[in-house]
Amino acid sequence: MHYDIIIIGGGLGGLTAGAKLAKEGKTVLLLEQHDRPGGCATTFKRKEYTLEAGLHEMDGPHPKDMKVRIFKDLGIDGRVTLLGLPEFYRFVNGRQDVVIPHDPEEAVHRLSQLFPGDTEGLNTYFHYLLNSRKLLAESAGSPEKSLGSFLDEHIGNEDLKLILLGNLGYFHDDPYSISLNYYLVAQGSYFGGNASFVQGGSQKLSDSLASVIKENGGTVKLNSMVTGIIYENDSPAGVTWEITSARDKGTMTGHATEILVNAAVPNLAGSLLPKGRGNILSEKIKDMNIGASLLTVYFGFRKSLKEVGNRHYSTFVFDPSIKTQKNIAENNKAGFETRSFTFVDYSQVDSALAPEGKGVGAVCCIDYLQEWEGMERNSYLKRKSAVADIFVDRCEKLIPGFRGALEYVEVATPMTVQRYTMNPAGAVYGFAQNPGKPSAYLSALPDNLHIASAWGKFGGGFSGAIYSGYITALDILRKRK
User: Fold this and answer.
1) N or C: which end of the chain has fewer CB within 10 A?
2) Which CATH number applies to 2-38+201-289+432-480: 3.20.20.140, 3.20.20.70, 1.10.760.10, 3.50.50.60?
3) CA-CA-CA-CA torsion for 324, 99, 336, 201, nearest 10 degrees?
4) Each residue of 298-331: pLDDT tens digit?
């Protein structure tokens, strides 16, 4: 069968693009290798608990948030409920224990009281965050700075720098190798409005987008692993895929005018494109770095942690051994006894992830595939169990009564991320957002082959993937007109 668009991958980028294109009357086929749509935007059930695979919080909604327009256009705003979060985050490092509000004026006031010598630097930091797009437009063409160098230039106190970097793991693993431009736009969106959690978990958002595709005549096929892109007359013309469900094995072929890739660009180069075409793309991306992965420990609680005294939605814990921002990158490869982590307590909002009176939470930290790959299975499982014990102990110290409330524990490693998303190295944010990261590989693709994922020009995260999918769909629609 021939389609207007075939989409390889059902993450948020592919789902958003598919929903827009189907809504505009295009025939859409979306192929997803997993048994559910969403990529990192999924949930899974364990006992009575719905465990959130990836979402802690999403920036917005606020008046300047493009997702507001996108969700309204696609009819998503009436299908999902976005819960506002009580504060941005709590930061703890043994020397400081401070809650950062979403309101930038309040944040400056609170931090200036703690660090009066850095009031001017704080004002500069927030000025850049809140005016990032204007400032970046004015500096277009200038060499990019790193976030770390910017903070060293404007902030004197090292603990204040660490506090401002509390949620760095949402974007990257090292302040000295993340683009200041990228950080300002991403972090500025949190401070420019609010942050939210999708009630019921991110699967609700993914399922809603998939429903829009199907309700507008599109097709979503799960358990469908794309194995190659077909070329005809020197141009992409279709795809082949394997049906991987136990019930319906088989090889299928479909043709389309446009091919949209919601998958890792290294996989596109290495296995989906014909060899010669793949080699050209591989050469274009050879100097680009793949971003970090994550380790997550999922928790189910027999009672809400509010009952044992926790009052915060997300808490970022830095070990006291991190004295300056230069220590952050090395700590991300330290033992789990001292590695920085985030604890998210979903029971602080009406998350609908657990039965009444119970709760769900998660620990998350930067991690790397090489720390886990090649292990014999029993050793792998034993190490996962040991990591769970370490973080239970650390959370008990952070929130006394944590262990007594705990009923269920499960660990996902970078190997888990790689298995379910197929991202190389288990990367969750696509290519690392280094200063001066090239994007020439995108323009080197054939005119009818498009990237709509964390590996595209907008980068990773829920918002980046959604923007990528929507803008790519608009580009296709404009071209076809």
Assistant:
1) C
2) 3.50.50.60
3) -130
4) 999 999 999 999 999 999 999 999 999 999 999 9
